Amino acid sequence: MKSILKITLPALVGLATLFTACQSEPEVGTKLYNKGETSNLPKLYIHDLGNQGNKGALEVVNANGELIAKKDTVKFYVRLSSPLDHDLEVSVAENPSATKQAGATALEKGAVNILTPTVTIAKGATVSAEPIKVVAQLGNALDTLMSTRTNGAVTLTLNPAQGVDVASNYGNMNITVNYKESNIVDNGNTDGLTAMDLGDYLVYDDQNNKLEKLYDGNLSTVWFKPSNEGPFTFVITVSENTKVTALSLVPSARYVNWVAKSMTVETSEDWNTWTNQGEITRTDNSISNGEPFVVRFTKPVKCNYIRLSNVRSASSRYLVIGEMKFYK
Description:
The chain has two domains: 43-181, Immunoglobulin-like, CATH 2.60.40; 198-327, Galactose-binding domain-like (Jelly Rolls, Sandwich). It contains three helices and 20 strands. The protein has helices at 9-23, 140-148, 284-288, and strands at 43-48, 55-63, 66-69, 74-80, 88-94, 105-106, 112-114, 118-121, 132-136, 152-158, 165-166, 172-181, 201-205, 223-226, 232-250, 260-268, 274-281, 293-313, 318-321, 323-327.
């Protein structure tokens, strides 16, 4: 039996339309295939030493109105996805327009000093022979942080180099410039300083009780309190217009583990207006080694009063202090 195919007029019209659409040519200027163009050139990219996602950090400290750059250095290498048959010089530059760090101030050019502005990736190698090194640089750009009182942000961008492409997501190094207000030196000591005479200062508690055991020159006569009564406050009066450079809480040899762990230091010239010089927490090593708890000021402070507040013990049992000493 023969099959008979019947096609109605509307169906013929539909087939004709479909056939015409399949054979129509693309419009002028359009692509036959919607594929993004890719380059076969080697890719140049930044790789930080700590695998932090191309992020680094520097620190500056506002010490009573003077900005001080800490001795931090951000280091990172520049790499190639595949080696070249010649040496390649690579450089980076500050790029404020690329900075997009939430909660931080985007810093203008000049906030950092690029110590190694150009590095070389040798023929046949895929990583620069040395890292790019960056430090904070004092000047107008960093001074902005003293007004905003926030952290700053700097972006370094790889400059184009002939014969390679910069990898789209790895061409920037993002550096946070942490801003801190403190006039206290990290891991300070009293080297080269002159201790005040015992008669040049008095020590009181927050109830105005004189604590003579803390400045009698005898480490055996200690001041102590149960730790759960803390945190503690001490107020020291010094001779008028004295410039104080440092202070120390000296432990008694019998109670080296029951010493102060942390505190806040404030100063005043008139008792009414107090300046916060900073907060300090000592290391466990300094406690176990029986070392004094030293607070050294970055800039000496002219004052009549010193207040040590939020003084907390390293022990859950007692806070014990042998002597308090002050230096000029």
